[in-house]
Amino acid sequence: MISQGVYGSPDLLSLREIEVPVPAKHEVRVRVHSAALHVGDCFGVRGKPLLMRMETGLRKPKHGIPGYDVAGYVDAVGEDVTRFQVGDQVFGSCQGACAELVCTGEDTLALKPSEITFEQAAAVPTSGLAALHALRDVAKVQARQSVLIIGASGGVGTFAVQIAKSLGAEVTGVCSTPNVDLVRSLGADHVFDYTREDFAESGRRYDVIFDNIENRSLSDCRRALTPTGTLILNSGTGAQGVSFLVRLLKPLLISPFLRQRLCRYLSTPNAADLSVLAEMLKSAAITPVIGRTYSLIETADAIRHIETGRAKGKTIIRIGDGG
Ligand SMILES: NC(=O)c1ccc[n+]([C@@H]2O[C@H](COP(=O)([O-])OP(=O)(O)OC[C@H]3O[C@@H](n4cnc5c(N)ncnc54)[C@H](OP(=O)(O)O)[C@@H]3O)[C@@H](O)[C@H]2O)c1
């Protein structure tokens, strides 16, 4: 596995040998083929924004192993596990996915569709579920509604474009010039290249705006929403200290006084929704976009790549052959 004992630069990550983990009663041990990283892993490594330490450990990392997304083979099962057996190909969520063997609850895994690779499967859980929960559950997107996805070429955005299309929406993506073709290929009906056009000045209005970047003012976003539209804010982490809290809380505090709905949400992994995504993968309603693949020893480079804010699709860590 790769881990760090203190918060700081990704250079502090180093390869370590640990004892083979033993699954608890409801846990499955997975021999990892691939893991995926996302922005949250960068926060976990740096320990910033400080608020994140409530989850990852106040003074030093509780776990210190990056990665929440995993795909591989079931290697052992706890005595109460009913859904999986040794040899099954699975994907799902776990703490510390950047390791050869990981244990996680059976309720955070689903069977990997045979139609996709392990790398593609590892790409799905955090970002696919975040997109599904935002569009299906928070915004309750209906057929023929207009949906604007800001950050359409990123980890969450590439799933969001495809999921919004499969819900029957008319989808507009926002990305930069090199990613316009990608976002169109995912099914977006319209694309704003933000280096040339400004969605907030276009005069178009959307029933739902899913903002994965949050570099625009609330008034810009509200101007592009229909009078009763929903704005889902899904970042808020660019600022620090008090401005971070203001950015996080202001929309929630003013929303009850508006006809428009401004919201944040927390996507929680669960087996039922992983299975929903598995069905969408089987039918090719969604296809994961993999930007770059790194080896375990290159995890620090992968973290730095995500930190640029320019990562395309998902960033994968290839760990073993899983067999
Ligand atoms: N609510 C939840 O439970 C939950 C769960 C998972 C993730 N999240 C959050 O979701 C957010 C997005 O995560 P992610 O993994 O999708 O991020 P990401 O993959 O790191 O986003 C990178 C992408 O953002 C695009 N981008 C950068 N600046 C942009 C701009 N001004 N306008 C449009 N696109 C821009 C880049 O494309 P270009 O190079 O084309 O600019 C790049 O493709 C994060 O803040 C994460 O914390 C929330």
Short structural description:
With 323 residues, the chain is α/β, with parallel strands linked by helices. 28% of the residues lie in helices and 25% in strands.
CATH architecture of the largest domain: Alpha-Beta Complex
Q: According to CATH, what is the class of the largest domain?
A: Alpha Beta
Shape: globular
Radius of gyration equals 19 Å
What's the β-strand tally?
15
The set of bound ligands, ions and cofactors reads: NADP nicotinamide-adenine-dinucleotide phosphate
**CATH topology category name of the largest domain:** Quinone Oxidoreductase, Chain A, domain 1
Mean pLDDT: 94
- By CATH, the superfamily of the largest domain comes out as Medium-chain alcohol dehydrogenases, catalytic domain
Strand portion: 25-35%
Give the end-to-end Cα distance, rounded to a whole number of Å.
Answer: 17 Å
Count the helices. How many?
10
Low-confidence stretches: none
- How do the helices and strands follow one another from N- to C-terminus? EEEHHEEEEHHEHEHEEHEHEHEHE
Helix content: 25-40%
Number of domains: 2
Q: What does the main sheet amount to?
A: 7 strands, mixed
Question: What class would the helix/strand composition place it in?
Answer: alpha/beta
